[in-house]
Amino acid sequence: MIKVFYGKKGTGKTKHMLENANEIVVEAKGNVVYIDDSNDQLMKLAREIRFVNVMDYPVKGTEAFLGFICGIASQNYDIETIFIDGLNYIVGEKGLESFFKGLELFEKDNELNFFISINGDENSVPDYIKKYI
């Protein structure tokens, strides 16, 4: 499953992501990972959640980030949910459509759940993202 929280900055996307992560980890049979581009949210997450600051790694662009996600999942087969906060801050706007195509294939093959926040105008959501909202 892929679920996207899409909206302008300040509309509560991160708050919903944090709430979902903290609720899911309570019932999770596997591990939960939260990926962000800063350490700002670290203390708001349950300690059982694996926090990853992507800026600690040399990841540039959508293809590299998709590979990064595959690497995280391949090192631990018990991961069941991955949260990605601020996707367009992490990889930029270019290549997001191909990123989602790759993520969808990866998600189906590995039975992972993804929760993703993206900053943007909710009145102009790209068609390739609408099905995930």
Descriptive notes:
Helix content is 40%, strand content 22%. The protein contains five helices and five strands. It is of the alpha/beta class and 133 residues long. It has a five-stranded parallel sheet with strand order 1-5-4-2-3. The protein has helices spanning 13-27, 62-75, 87-91, 96-110, 127-130, and strands spanning 2-7, 31-36, 50-53, 79-84, 113-119.
Task: Please outline what is shown here.
The chain has 133 residues and is α/β, with parallel strands linked by helices. The protein has five helices and five strands; from the N terminus they run E-H-E-E-H-E-H-H-E-H.
Features:
133 residues; alpha/beta; globular
Question: Topology, please?
Answer:
Layout: E1 2-7, H1 13-27, E2 31-36, E3 50-53, H2 62-75, E4 79-84, H3 87-91, H4 96-110, E5 113-119, H5 127-130
Parallel strand pairs: 1-5, 2-3, 2-4, 4-5
Helix pairs in contact: 2-4
Pick out the low-confidence regions: none
Provide the gyration radius in Å: 14 Å
Name the CATH homologous superfamily.
Answer: P-loop containing nucleotide triphosphate hydrolases
Number of helices: 5
Oligomer: single chain
Main sheet specs: 5 strands, parallel
What is the rounded distance between the termini? 11 Å
* CATH class assignment: Alpha Beta
Quick one: how many beta strands?
5
Question: Order of strands across the biggest sheet?
Answer: 1-5-4-2-3
**Beta fraction:** 15-25%
CATH fold-level label: Rossmann fold
| Helix content bin | 25-40%
Inertia-based shape = globular
Derived structural class: alpha/beta
CATH architecture annotation: 3-Layer(aba) Sandwich
Order of helices and strands: EHEEHEHHEH
The average pLDDT value, as a whole number, equals 94
